[in-house]
Amino acid sequence: MKNKHCYGQSGVQGFFGRIKFLEYWYQLFYFFVPGYNFIHCTFVAKTATLKPRVGNTDLRKKYKIKSWYPSSIWVSLYSFWHGYMLNAIGLSNPGLEFMLNKGDWQKRDKHFHISLQLEAESESELYEEINNIIVLLKKYLNPKFHHYSIQINVSCPNTEHDNTLDTQKLEQLKMIARTFKALLPEVKLYYKWNALVTTQILLELKDLIDGNIISNTIPFGDASSGINWENLFTHGQSPLPYRLGLRYEGGLSGLPIYSVLVKKLQEIEEKDPDINVIAGGGIMTKKQIDELSTFSCVKGIALGTVGLLRPWRVKKLSSYANKVFAKRA
């Protein structure tokens, strides 16, 4: 089996990645768009939590987005044209056991990724949460018979959990990695970050995990990103609090975060090119894939927003990425 160097970003194909499930309404139309095909991508499931989570998005049948244009997602004609969008979905999901019990992941005959977010705060609660997750995985998706990896989402801007990374949080991340590796040694473990993560944290965790997914969405308005928010949004303000009636300003994805990604990769390359990265964030052209392939730390790419805003490019870009990175390997 050929190794795939291209991945879907978590959620771009939904929880199960099957057109027949119709998790997103736009799939009704995109199904007929030439080139909207993730066949060359490793499937990455939408992020789940151990327990069901309401989040900011109404679901039907527990896992399908109810509205054709939910209030937790924002895109305008201008942003569509310029390749960016906001979301504050808030990890709405029916819980890990529901998805495992549905039985679709078990039918996959190719390697795929399960994306998870841990919700516990204290070390003892985290250990219990991880243990419960692993019990479910061994029950429904025993790694002796199913080939998958795990992504831990550690930088979602749309939950009430603290996403800052101090010394205590770093020690928790080390404990999480050690626990997963001890209890589920057959499964590769990745951490998913946004491109604002400090390189020192990646260095600290390098020997404990198998790799990093960079970048998650960038928290709206973050000044350290270098993004000109006023150029993208009226008065530099997020439209999501008005739509949602909540405090969440959302996370930015698409072309504007690509430059933030490249800057972070340059820093990683300088500090330690042996840090493994799957790079994503605003990838919409072959030229960008060529640029990313020049970084020795980048082992593959992840496509997300292009699947929504440039769906006709998905098949060509993913096929091209696999060829480019296969040659380099």
Tags for this model:
single chain; alpha/beta; TIM Barrel; 4-stranded antiparallel β-sheet; 13 strands; 15% strand
Strand order of the largest sheet: 1-13-12-9-8-7-6
Estimate the helix proportion, in percent: 25-40%
* Largest β sheet strand count, sense and barrel closure: 7 strands, parallel
Q: Percent of residues in beta strands?
A: 5-15%
Mean pLDDT, as a whole number? 92
Distance between the termini: 15 Å
Could you tell me the radius of gyration in angstroms?
18 Å
The total of beta strands comes to: 13
Looking at the structure, what is the overall shape? globular
Provide the low-confidence segments as ranges.
158-163
CATH class descriptor: Alpha Beta
Total individual domains: 1
Instruction: Supply the helix-strand structural class.
Output: alpha/beta
Total helical segments:
12
Do you know the CATH architecture? Alpha-Beta Barrel
